[in-house]
Write a structure and sequence with these properties.
This protein has one domain (12-464): Amino acid/polyamine transporter I (Up-down Bundle). Helices cover 75% and strands 3% of the residues. The chain has helices at residues 2-22, 35-50, 54-57, 59-68, 80-91, 94-107, 111-135, 149-159, 163-180, 184-198, 203-218, 221-250, 255-264, 269-285, 298-302, 310-317, 319-339, 350-358, 364-395, 399-414, 425-434, 436-464; strands at 25-28, 31-34, 138-139, 145-146. The N and C termini lie far apart (73 Å).
Amino acid sequence: MTDNVNFQDIFEQLTNHLASVVFYTFNVNGTEVPLVLLWLILGALFFTLSLGFINIRGFGHAIGLLKNNKTTGESGEITPFQALTTALSGTVGTGNIAGVALAISLGGPGATFWMIIAGLLGMSTKFIECTLAVKYRQINADGSVSGGPMFYIKAAFDKCNLPLLGSILAIAFSVFVIFGSAGFVHVNQGFVQLKTVTGFNNAWLFGAIYAGLVALVIIGGLKSIAKVTSKLVPLMCAIYLFAALGVMAVHLTQIPAAFALIISSAFTPEAGYGGFIGVLIQGFRRAAYSNEAGVGSSPIAHAAAQTKNPISQGFVALLEPFIDTVVICTITALVIILTGAYQTAGLDGVEITSSAFASIFSWFPWVLMVALLLFGFSTVVSWSYYGLTGWRYIFGTGHKATTIYKVLFCLIVSIGAVPNIMAVFNFIDSMIFLMAVPNILALYMLLPEVRRDLAIYWRQVTSDK
């Protein structure tokens, strides 16, 4: 027993040390700012300016592409809409419910303003990384697609006559995404909410059932995952947003005042701490709960889209941070602000959101439980594909290698609800944010060719009108 305790202590110390390195902070006017946060935000700002605010001027075109959703004759495995919902299912999760509440409790209502800004900037990063994912993807002999940052990272360094460094960084990214794909946090938080609402207290049984359901989905590969997420994502968003709109309807006359409060308090010291640290650190760090722009996860899903032009999928992809952060997170924030739940002492994270909804709907904890389970499940199955892509990049696309990963993934999911595995969360978070280092570096290197491709694409669109 002593050896077991010592091992757990050592592992926890190592993961905490790793997290402290990955989330290294430096002091700016008394505020601790993580270096990885600047790496993500400054990258998003640079891409937004370099691409001429593509997040704004390309928004209408993106909506038009999504409405058409035509795939006749294009290579790929899933439709552009399915690629979007698969990627969204990996980002829309407990962070949209608990992460927003934490940000507001730290920084006040003004934190919402910075959350929206981060979402808008992230749209540009999504555009460039998902464009490159389609451009440098590989179509396998069986018609399946292999694509993602590992492929364009290698290509970027090949173009600079640094093939060895490119190979090392591509493999490193693959390793990070494999370890980052573990779905511990989503399984665990789903179990906690189920236990709170129903009293069910068998973590092992919950984990086994959860893993079985995940296996049923991922055994069919990406097409199976896409079919599930294309149905599940709209459903879970509808359930959550329906309840949110109900709360907003009760407080309808207070909505203008809530927005005024968000804007007026956005630049106070308290809101500055909550906006940057509360939203961007907690949103990005807690399993990339915001929109994962720059992390490099979503490009893996978008790489499989059935499209002839990589730029067109880039436009579809830029809608992802808008839906995830600007729409869903903002609605959550409004519910919390309108009800004043963030001012209730003794509440934290998801408890704040639950209290906000329960002030209007006494039965909402049951809805929240269902929402968390759906959000978490869809995130787990999407990340299983991300991890599989990294695994296949290293070990090959053979059936045996694929089967080994899927079995290992389901075994890991099965123990996700057990409380004593909480120590691995820092490790998983660290792996996910390490993905952003080589990913954004490659985006900088390949930005000039994306700008050229975008200019050509716009000329074609204009001439076709």
